[in-house]
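I am still getting used to backbone structure tokens and would like to learn alongside you. To get us started, please write out a protein record for me. Start from the sequence, derive the backbone structure tokens from it, and show both lines together. Once you have written the record down, we can walk along the chain together:
***
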Amino acid sequence: MKKLMMFVAFAAVCFTANAQIDSKVKDVMQKCVKAMENPAGVEYDMDFKVGMGEVSMMSCHVLASSKGNLSKAVVTAKVFGIEAKSETGFDGNEEWEWNHTPSLSADEPAKKDTVFVQKATERKKTPMDLDLDILEQYRKATMKTDANYYVITLSNPVEQEKALPAEVVIKVYKKDYYLRELSMEQEGATISMTVTNVRTGLTDEYFRFDPSHYPDAVVVRK
């Protein structure tokens, strides 16, 4: 499951120049990257869904924010009906990680949440980071347009043994070049991602670690 989610996050935002890709596709992709790396700071409200046939295996809401080297991601996920929450971030001086998993039954005692904090000069890569080689893993990229979107389809993976999705469909909004939708199938699972809102203009303070945001958690500094 983690592998599926990592690929969704990577494919959603990872575009690189490739000589075999049509110049119009590359142009849209490059503009999308520029828009999504807004230097004023940008926050994406996203919904992920993973299903197998008629069965919903996981739904996930992600609030992902970045500004230069600063970052924060708040994730609320439901896996087979069980909700879990997590938050990770880097404020330029410290990086932190908080996870909350509820008790699986009424008889199970509640677990105390923990926030792990450590000094850092740059943030570590996570599954939400860019994989700038993803486009090179496909031999073909085509693009269609409709009233509101550029619809880009990646197909024909270079290395089949890596079990990459045979096809990835990405929608980029024409007006602002922000990524809006992504869909694929992998290992029998249907995966979709929809950006429901984009907010720009974030202050550095927004990314600063504040222990008061976790009143019921134990803060552990490494």
Observations:
- The first helix runs from residue 2 to 13.
- The two ends are 29 Å apart (CA to CA).
